[in-house]
Design brief:
- The protein folds into three domains: about 220 residues, no CATH class; about 40 residues; about 90 residues, 4-Layer Sandwich (Metallo-beta-lactamase, Chain A).
- It is globular and about 75 Å long.
- The longest helix has 30 residues.
- Strand 3 and strand 4 form a beta hairpin.
- The chain is built from 17 helices and seven strands.
- It is an alpha/beta fold.
- Pfam families: Competence, Lactamase_B.
């Protein structure tokens, strides 16, 4: 084989939104220290890297991971900032409304075309043309089905649309309230309304998340989002990196870890059946609508609590054998969740030592199989966990299970403890 000549290929400058977003994320990760860079890429561009997995699991256990889900808060900040700036420059309202459309496309691209961002941007644009409340929601839903017909197949799309629907239905009731009472009322209403869907997808709920959302929404909305935006723009324009701000995010993560040590385990409610799920949605809808009627309110609350109880405590005892990889896991559940016994947790077997370049961060198998199943049955505490022997494929995911579900007793044989 002979080589006639070698051509040097130079990278072409591209203004494609996906490439611009990737360059912005790399700029943040390479020029700002962690964890500041993670918060910057998460809040500005909707990207959280692998290095945020540990803190991400803590935010998730506290029920406030949605603070990083780009939606109405971030959209309102950037769109309102743009509109106020253009008004100050003397542009007419109709010109500003038209200019908002290409800006919305640009911002959607810079955030990875997230369904929650697109939904919020569409609603913002429609509101400029006098389309509000349920009319706004209905037209937004129609446009999403037209251009993104599979959006409801994602958890984020479903939750985002449910939030938007509840706000469209009941938002007018909160408009006359003082600012902080309005925020608290909206948080309580949204948390209650979305609870059946959280049970269906995640099978648990963190009650303390209502208070944490109320507190941290202020921090993220008023301090972090504007501050990180200014720091990013300053760094891009002048090369000045205000890395000293990183200590604030280190303190924040220390506080989050402290709170997690107090309220680590969420309230596991189980997975409702289709009938119970629909009944919950209907009852919650009537409950919010008839909240001022005391007799109706207490009756609906009693019905709702009964539905929660049936989901949390299955009336029929069961024995389940689960496929956990190379072995099997056996779960015995007594009537009404009075006693639970789990035999083996499964795990991933590794053959031989890995080279450094082969090492990677991976989640436990139980996080995707065993733990979601136990939570779907309403299991918040395992009375006895039996480890038949200490091979990785039988007890490798033990710590993952204990980290998410309380375990009273762990039993194994003396020979297994001496096994090497």
């Amino acid at each position: 084989m002979t080589i006639d000549h070698i051509i040097s290929i130079k990278p072409r400058q591209s203004w494609h939104l996906t490439i611009l977003r990737r360059k912005a994320i790399l700029f943040c990760e390479q020029n700002f220290p962690r964890p500041m860079s993670s918060y910057m890429t998460g809040l500005l561009f909707g990207h959280l890297g692998k290095d945020f997995d540990e803190m991400g699991s803590i935010y998730t256990s506290l029920g406030i991971m949605h603070l990083f889900a780009l939606s109405g808060m971030q959209v309102s900040f950037f769109v309102d900032f743009l509109r106020k700036g253009l008004f100050r420059l003397g542009f007419r309202r109709d010109i500003v409304n038209l200019f908002q459309i290409p800006f919305s496309v640009f911002y959607a691209g810079m955030t990875g075309f997230s369904i929650s961002v697109i939904r919020s941007l569409i609603q913002k644009v429609l509101a400029n043309f006098g389309i509000k409340h349920l009319d706004n929601f209905s037209l937004t839903l129609f446009l999403l089905f037209l251009f993104m017909p599979k959006f409801l197949l994602t958890t984020g799309g479903t939750l985002s649309l449910l939030f938007a629907f509840v706000i469209s239905m009941f938002g007018e009731r909160f408009e006359k309230l003082p600012k902080y009472r309005k925020l608290l009322a909206e948080s309580l209403t949204l948390s209650l309304s979305v609870l059946p869907l959280l049970m269906l997808y995640f099978h648990n709920f963190q009650p303390f998340s209502i208070f944490l959302t109320f507190v941290f929404s202020f921090l993220f909305d008023v301090l972090f989002l504007p501050g990180l935006s200014l720091i990013f723009l300053l760094a891009m324009a002048t090369g000045i990196m205000l890395t000293q701000i990183n200590i604030i995010f280190q303190w924040l993560e220390g506080l989050i870890k402290l709170v997690d040590s107090w309220y680590h385990y969420p309230l596991i409610l189980g997975k409702p059946t289709t009938f119970v799920f629909l009944a919950m949605l209907v009852v919650i809808g009537f409950l919010i609508d008839q909240w001022r009627n005391q007799k109706v309110r207490y009756s609906l609350l009693l019905i709702l609590l009964s539905l929660f109880f049936v989901t949390k405590n299955p009336p029929i005892p069961s024995i389940t054998m689960g496929d956990i990889g190379q072995g099997d896991s056996i779960f015995l559940q007594d009537q009404f969740n009075r006693r639970n016994i789990l035999i083996d947790t499964g795990g991933r077997v590794q053959f031989g030592a890995r080279k450094k370049w082969q090492e990677r961060t991976s989640s436990a198998m139980a996080d995707k199989t065993l733990i979601p199943y136990l939570k779907s049955l309403g299991v918040s505490e395992i009375d006895t966990l039996v480890v038949t022997h200490t091979d990785e494929d039988h007890m490798g995911d033990l710590l993952a299970v204990v980290n998410q579900i309380k375990v009273k007793n762990i039993l194994t044989s003396e020979g297994s403890l001496n096994h090497t």
